[in-house]
Known about the structure:
Blueprint: E1 5-13, H1 17-28, E2 44-51, E3 54-61, H2 67-75, E4 82-87, H3 90-99, E5 104-110, E6 113-118, H4 120-123, E7 127-133, E8 159-169, H5 172-183, E9 188-190, E10 193-197, E11 202-207, E12 215-223, H6 226-235, E13 240-241, E14 244-247, E15 250-255
Parallel strand pairs: 1-3, 4-7, 8-11, 12-15
Antiparallel strand pairs: 1-4, 2-3, 5-6, 6-7, 8-12, 9-10, 10-11, 13-14, 14-15
Helix pairs in contact: 1-6
Amino acid sequence: xxxxxxxxxxxxxxxALQPAEEAVRAVFGLxxxxxxxxxxxxxxxxxxxxxxxxxxxxxxxxxxxxxxxRFIERTRGVGGYMAIFDCDDPLARRARAxxxxxxxxxxxxxxxxxxxxxxxxxxRATMLEFDHSDGGEDLDGPYWPAGPHWRDAQRLDRVQGIPxxxxxxxxxxxxxxxxxxxMDVPVSDDAGRPRLDFDLGAVRFVxxxxxxxxxxxxxxxxxxxxxxxLDAAARHGLPADGPGFRIAGxxxxxxxxAP
Length: 259
């Protein structure tokens, strides 16, 4: 198997699932590709959408005292909940994290799928997850978290992917160095801002005022018609945020090509 590391999925935490789900459907013209009944044991419900060959997941608490609910309370609903990577070597990445003093929050082990969630306080900015789905080296192949029929909901004529996400914080260089060490990916320069590039997707680290909380702030979404997406967001009443809009605490910027 070839070596690979793909930024395959972004997860958002919303106080209620339906409004966020309806916003994604209305703005991007996508339908839910999968719901995972297994998240119920964590007091959650979810919906996944396929964005090209990447995925957007929305989770919402169904009871009190859940990790997602505490995240929403702690952050006041600002920022993405998780960044999820598919890779060829999840056990080696778990061992690397432990050597670096990063705690393992959850171990995931199912038929055809293995991975780990790293503690968000040790990761900084957001929870990181590193998984492997059997056959996942083929982007058109299986991706266990999205269910067996995810390609039925793929609309490449509308949405081609999530080529870039941005993380904001007062120390972008330090955070980039931390993630670089954790992921074993070199830091590059993107117009003066640190950046990590993966086989699929990239992360850019941007400055925030002193004292600001580090968070997963922005997803750039490659779409066929950025202007139409912005118009749909305005019609749906989503709050504008610079060149984009917000859904469940995260900024989305529609782009015609990968930044």
